[in-house]
Design a protein that fits this description.
alpha/beta, five-stranded parallel sheet, two-stranded antiparallel sheet, 9 strands, globular, disordered N terminus, disordered C terminus
């Protein structure tokens, strides 16, 4: 897939901005964890001469593990803040900062660009369909070069949240030989990728313990200071008395922050009626309401989130509350107020009310945050999103209908709108409306950004499916090729063959890639039955044969691969026979001869291989002679 340099730079900068916003948000009101920070800082600043990549040497990496909500991302944000005050060169990443952040390839490409810029290496051009191992080697090489000049710290939050490929599960993308002057700090849930990382020589595990009472009190003080409030001592005592599974509920920072925001709501005008139920002065009524609220608070995070949902439904409208959390849970990165203005009435069935929306934001202040230059409202933790999805049954629309309403809204926005570009295909796929999804992907008016956004959404659906297996996801995407409109089918097949296969082909198992390629082959065969003279479709079919052959070669199925290559050759010989001056077709023909010759040589059929290679060389010579005869302007117009 063709990607402009300017678009790539723009996207990388957007990722950097989102990362910084994420880190700042997570480290807000940070207190405590001094022993953890000291250990991490000591490692990051330890002298290079003390480092050894052997088991006997001191560690070069730390993997910080902890339960959901235990504060791993907060530690990440605080470590990043502190390291920026040193001379270290920092490569930072948070796998949950944006939907694109779960891609190891995208992370490495951004780091390669940052390293290349700092080293004065200029723009490092890596094609979109390049082998992931080449990307990994480029990163490893630049990391070594930078580490030879200054300390490098690689800092990753949520290493367990990368796409569930073998690279992500087993941290196979990390250089096997770690530079002596580089350090690695990662966070993640215990097990999985964290376990794989910790099993590497030189990487130690540091379990994040529950908060100590002094740390919990520090968080309470910091949050109260930010909100310009002060909790009464009995209320603080009641919070610190909450227990969960034999331990203090406040030992989990996320639970404590959610609880504090719930208490802050009791002092708002939205819940003024509740305070009137108590006797005494205004301060006494508020304290009584807070004590009762703490007593009724669930001691685990999902139930605490659901209690907020129930409060919103009771205070406002069950339909609007369900629509609000439904829209948030359906999105990948959140929505702008302008998006809610259009979607809430459609999903909730009630007219837009600005005051009610402000109340919704206030009620969910502990569970949502506003981030990025688009001012997106989104859940601030995966546990809140999971709790919201458990309430989707309360919506007045089905889940596919919800996603289709979102897709319809996105398609009303400007073609270059960022959410339209990245999210439309996500929601069309989730709507299960293959006809609409195919029409969108096959739309000839799609610009470069929209096509790339739709292609990446399709690739993500196979590389890291939300449900099922990559193979089942591939079959679902192949349904886009069943569109009754031949022009749509042809364009979808062409874009799946070139853009999609370039983006996803090297990141999925060969059998999964074959599912899509075989469906593309079948589509062009069927189309050519109706229009046998369509040269463009014939050429696309020949390319599909080549790509199927490449996969079969990788699988060791050489006879089947040879058959596929020869089918492509037959098409190309026919096309060049009717258009012998077409340089692009001649180039295709030379590729067929080369692939067949190489494969025959591997099979030991040397005479046949030599014949094919001679034919290839003859084509190459014709192309070279033609190129010399053309002027510079003509050569520029020739398709390589």
């Amino acid at each position: 897939m063709s990607v402009s340099v300017s678009s790539t730079i723009e996207e990388m900068q957007a990722e950097r901005n989102a990362l910084q916003s994420f880190a700042d948000d997570r480290a807000r009101d940070f207190v405590g964890r001094q022993s953890v920070l000291s250990r991490v800082t000591d490692l990051c600043l330890s002298p290079a001469k003390e480092l050894s990549p052997t088991k006997e040497g001191p560690p070069w990496g730390i993997c910080i593990t902890g339960d959901p909500g235990s504060g791993k991302s907060a530690v990440f944000g605080e470590v990043l803040r502190r390291l920026k005050e040193t001379d270290a060169f920092i490569l930072a990443h948070a796998a949950e900062a944006t939907p694109q952040a779960s891609s190891i390839d995208a992370m490495l490409r951004r780091w390669i660009a940052e390293l290349g810029s700092a080293l004065g290496a200029g723009d490092i051009d890596l094609a979109a369909n390049i082998d992931p191992e080449i990307v990994e080697r480029a990163f490893a090489s630049l990391l070594v070069r930078m580490a030879s000049k200054r300390r490098v710290v690689v800092l990753i939050d949520a290493i367990d949240q990368f796409k569930k490929t073998s690279r992500g599960k087993f941290t196979a993308w990390l250089p096997r030989l770690w530079p002596i002057n580089a350090r690695l700090v990662a966070t993640g849930l215990a097990g999985g990728a964290s376990k794989a990382l910790s099993e590497r020589s030189g990487v130690e595990t540091l379990a994040l313990p529950p908060l100590e009472s002094s740390e919990a009190e520090g968080i309470i003080e910091a949050v109260c200071k930010r909100n310009e409030r002060k909790l009464a001592a009995p209320v603080i005592d009641a919070l610190l008395a909450k227990k969960h599974a034999g331990g203090p509920a406040w030992g989990n920072p996320l639970w404590l922050l959610l609880a504090l925001e719930e208490l802050e709501l009791l002092d708002s005008s939205d819940l003024a009626d509740m305070r009137r139920e108590y006797a005494g002065s205004s301060e006494e009524r508020l304290r009584s309401a807070m004590l009762d609220a703490v007593g009724a608070m669930p001691a685990d995070i999902p139930l605490l989130c659901r209690a907020t949902f129930d409060s919103a439904a009771q205070l406002l409208s069950p339909a609007i509350a369900a629509a609000f959390i439904g829209l948030l849970s359906a999105g990948r990165t959140g929505w702008r107020e302008s998006d809610f203005r259009q979607l809430l009435p459609q999903v909730g069935g009630e007219a837009w009310d600005q005051k009610r929306f402000a109340t919704l934001r206030n009620l969910f202040r502990g569970q949502i945050h506003q981030h990025g230059d688009l001012a997106l409202l989104d859940f601030n933790h995966s546990q809140a999103r999971a709790a919201a999805r458990s309430r989707l049954a309360a919506l007045r629309v089905t889940n596919p209908e919800l996603h289709l309403l979102i897709a319809d809204h996105l398609l009303t926005l400007a073609p270059d709108d960022r959410l339209r570009v990245t999210e439309t295909m996500v929601h069309l796929l989730a709507s299960k409306d293959e006809v609409r999804a195919a029409r969108h992907y096959g739309d000839p008016s799609l610009g470069e950004k929209e096509l790339r956004g739709a292609t990446y959404a399709l690739a993500d659906a196979i590389v890291s499916p939300a449900t099922g297996t990559p193979a089942s996801a591939a079959r679902e995407i192949c349904r886009l090729l069943q569109n009754p409109d031949h022009s749509v089918r042809a364009r979808v097949a062409e874009r799946l063959l070139f853009s999609f296969d370039d983006a996803a082909g090297r990141h999925v198992a060969s059998d999964v890639r074959l599912i899509v390629l075989n469906a593309i082959e079948q589509t062009f065969r069927e189309l050519l039955r109706d229009e046998p003279g369509n040269a463009g479709w014939q050429r696309n079919l020949s390319v599909a044969h080549d790509r199927v052959g490449d996969v079969l070669v990788a699988q060791g199925k050489l006879p089947e691969a040879l058959t596929s290559f020869r089918e492509g050759l037959a098409i190309r010989e026919k096309l060049t026979g009717t258009d012998s001056d077409n340089a692009a077709l001649q180039h295709d023909l030379s590729i067929s001869y080369e692939k067949i010759g190489d494969l025959l040589a591997v099979q030991g059929k040397l005479d046949e291989a030599l014949d094919s290679i001679r034919k290839q060389l003859a084509v190459v010579e014709r192309l070279a002679n033609g190129d010399r005869q053309r002027g510079p302007a003509e050569r520029d117009l020739a398709v390589p």
